[in-house]
Amino acid sequence: MSNHEQHDAAHRPAQRKEMSRRQFLSYTLGGTTAFMMGGAVLPMVRFAVDPLLMKKGEGTFVKVVEESKITTEPLEVKFKIHQIDGWYESEPELVAWISKDAQGNIFALSPVCKHLGCTIFWNTKGHNEYDCPCHDARYSKDGKNIAVANAPLDEYEVEVNKENGFVYLGPLKPNSRV
């Protein structure tokens, strides 16, 4: 290569590589397809993620019964709570066994047997115990497991409003009485 040819090659403007029609159509169709797929997938992703990002509500207490109706004999009380699962709102009915202990403190037990989840009842066999009709599990008045079940009954958090004289129940917690 001569000096003159080398000089011409160095000063020649860079040639642009032009896009073919086929490449242009491929890029255009690919971009359009990606845009349309994003438009279809984005609402589905938002539908799945939005409930996870929502602020969790704190456990609220529910007014259930007058304090004057509570004695040392367990009382079955039914109450409803407002519940939101994602976009589904419901008001399930719950049950609690409420009574006073020897010191006059009010406590509330869950009626769900810790053996297999059946509903327990008070004093059905005349032994002043909670009895489970499914597999004969038994619990003391404080919810302590006596037979069959391997754990005590759960209890509700309890608040008594002295101003209006009502008992309020909150979320379930492990039994602290036994």
Structural class: alpha+beta
Which range best describes the helical content: under 10%, 10-25%, 25-40%, 40-55%, 55-70% or over 70%?
Answer: 10-25%
Q: How many beta-strand runs? A: 12
> Uncertain runs with pLDDT below 50, 5 residues or more?
none
What is the general shape?
rod-shaped
Main beta sheet, described?
6 strands, antiparallel
Radius of gyration: 35 Å
Report the span from N to C terminus: 100 Å
Describe the structure.
- It is a single chain.
- With 178 residues, the chain is an alpha+beta fold.
- The strands form three sheets. It has a six-stranded antiparallel sheet with strand order 1-12-11-6-5-2, with no helix packed on it. Strands 7-8-9-10 form a four-stranded antiparallel sheet, with no helix packed on it.
- It is 24% helix and 30% strand.
- The termini are far apart.
Overview in brief:
This protein is an alpha+beta fold. It contains two helices and twelve strands.
Q: Can you tag this structure with a few keywords?
A:
24% helix, 4-stranded antiparallel beta sheet, 30% strand, 2 helices, 6-stranded antiparallel beta sheet, alpha+beta
SSE map:
Elements: H1 3-11, H2 21-53, E1 62-66, E2 75-80, E3 83-85, E4 88-90, E5 93-100, E6 106-109, E7 121-122, E8 130-131, E9 138-139, E10 145-147, E11 155-161, E12 166-173
Antiparallel strand pairs: 1-12, 2-5, 3-4, 5-6, 6-11, 7-8, 8-9, 9-10, 11-12
